[in-house]
Write a structure and sequence with these properties.
mainly beta, 5-stranded antiparallel beta sheet, 11 strands, rod-shaped, membrane
Length: about 190
């Protein structure tokens, strides 16, 4: 009886070693699917200062944001605006890091639509505390541009981070619509 038990244990161990070797030496194949989402940056907040000939530089309220939160529309009425300071808080509310590649400014008036080239002052993205930064919270037209801005585009904005961009645009016109669109990518 002892011999039968020893033989059975020997055969069982050989069988288990063979099965174990077969399972661990084979190549494991896995199908992995990656779903990419359409990531884009959003305008979370904005400020516009307009310089008039007689009244100086004042806050400007005739603005609205597009439903996709990536384009700001500024309506210029019958008073001539010499220049605008356009401030944007740009947010990354997605799960992947995105680059702010450009901010396009276009004007639409009686002569048609054309692109403007603003002077951009871009500030380092931060996680919290935008309102306490000297370039956003309590800023006045006479304070701009605030020192400490970045060299230029592109700017990497990590998930959950926000950045401020101030744009200076010379106009000298009235009765127009200005669109400010942020362009982002991976």
């Amino acid at each position: 009886m002892t011999n039968v038990f020893i033989v059975m244990m020997f055969l069982l161990s050989i069988l288990l070693i063979g099965v174990g070797y077969g399972l661990w030496s084979d190549t494991l194949k896995a199908n992995v699917y990656i779903h990419m989402f359409p990531g884009y940056l959003e305008i979370g907040s904005w400020k516009v200062f307009a310089r008039y000939r007689c009244d100086g530089c004042l806050g400007y309220d005739l603005t609205f944001l597009s439903p996709s939160n990536d384009t700001l529309h500024i309506l210029i009425g019958s008073r001539v605006v010499e220049y605008l300071w356009i401030g944007l808080v740009i947010e990354n509310n997605k799960e992947a890091s995105l680059y702010l590649e450009n901010i396009e400014v276009k004007i639409n008036d009686t002569s048609g639509e054309y692109e403007l080239t603003p002077i951009s002052y871009l500030y380092e993205p931060v996680k919290t505390g935008i309102g306490y930064m000297p370039y956003w919270g309590g800023v006045r037209c006479s304070d701009l541009p605030v020192n400490g801005y970045l060299a230029g585009y592109p700017v990497l904005v990590k998930p959950g981070y926000k950045m401020v961009a101030w744009l200076y645009v010379e106009l000298g016109l009235s009765n127009a619509e200005i669109t400010v669109e942020i362009v982002s990518g991976y």
